[in-house]
Design goal:
6-stranded antiparallel sheet; 5-stranded mixed sheet; 29 strands
Length: about 300
């Protein structure tokens, strides 16, 4: 398991997107600043992945001096908590965007969806575009390839979550699109590049939210935690020989934030930072939620 939590950028109450990097060490339960040999951009709305001790992230948005939001399509990699490289400066890359999803298997980082606009930093858009394309970043070649998919139509969305099951099935849950949050759960088989719609009754409506988190529990299961503004419900998605099943987990703990990050180790979820659902400001609290046997 990864030895802690590495955070890059994000929004703050005072300054908008920031460029600092911090590491929460599980061995001493403390945050430590990470001193890099190259300054990463001050971005928010990006989704990093970890592969072979390399932390890779694509895109995101940052605030310019006149208060507008500018979107990136660069790819950065942080190796061994020190060395930073611009792995790709936007050449033959996905269009600039933020609030997309990303997962990693043994060979690629897979990016889906996202949001772009000519707008202020709070996304009051003059014009906007919501993406439904899928791209693969090769860990070995450090290059991008767009994936041509088939099957069910992948509806455009952003502020959604993604998780990988059995290193093959990328599950997309929640988010916002042209029709609001009325979006089905979809599964992309990375071997066949085929999209299917996953039946999630009777939880379909509860899963149709944005600003949630998907947290890996094992190679064949992940937890889905909704934000506090819609009840902070917890579900598990589990893959078996008969398909993918969804189960609601009854929790006595209410995580009172949205726009949060989260990680898991199979029996415990750690939720960090986020925006207070009551006060509306960003907080730096770390929450722990232990999963019981009813989590599957």
């Amino acid at each position: 398991p990864f030895p802690g939590i590495l955070t890059v950028g994000g929004f703050t109450n005072q300054y908008g997107p920031v460029a600092d990097v911090w590491f929460f060490d599980f061995s001493d339960n403390a945050w430590h600043p990470v001193l890099l040999d190259f300054k990463v951009p001050a971005v928010a709305g990006t989704t990093p992945v970890v592969f072979n001790n390399t932390f890779t992230f694509f895109g995101g948005n940052y605030q310019t001096l006149d208060g507008t939001a500018t979107f990136s399509n660069e790819t950065f990699s942080i190796t061994n908590f020190r060395s930073v490289v611009v792995a790709n400066n936007g050449t033959n890359a996905p269009s600039a965007r933020a609030l997309h999803s990303a997962v990693s298997n043994s060979t690629h980082m897979i990016v889906f969806g996202g949001f772009f606009c000519v707008c202020s930093v709070n996304f009051n858009a003059v014009n906007k575009h919501i993406f439904s394309d899928t791209w693969a970043w090769s860990h070995a070649d450090q290059s991008w390839t767009e994936i041509t998919t088939n099957g069910a139509a992948s509806l455009p969305r952003f502020q959604h979550t993604a998780a990988l099951l059995n290193n093959v099935d990328m599950v997309i849950v929640g988010g916002s699109g042209d029709q609001g949050t009325d979006l089905p759960v979809m599964v992309l088989n990375l071997e066949t590049s085929t999209w299917t719609v996953l039946s999630t009754a009777p939880f379909t409506h509860s899963l149709q939210v944005d600003r949630a988190a998907a947290i890996s529990l094992s190679s064949s299961a992940f937890a889905y935690l909704t934000n506090a503004q819609v009840g902070g419900q917890l579900f598990t998605f589990r893959s078996s020989s008969t398909g993918i099943t969804v189960t609601e987990v009854q929790s006595a703990t209410q995580i009172p934030v949205d726009y949060f990050g989260a990680v898991g180790n199979g029996s415990e979820l750690l939720v960090f930072f986020g925006r207070s659902a009551t006060a509306g400001n960003f907080v730096n609290t770390l929450y722990s939620l232990t999963l019981g046997c009813n989590a599957g």
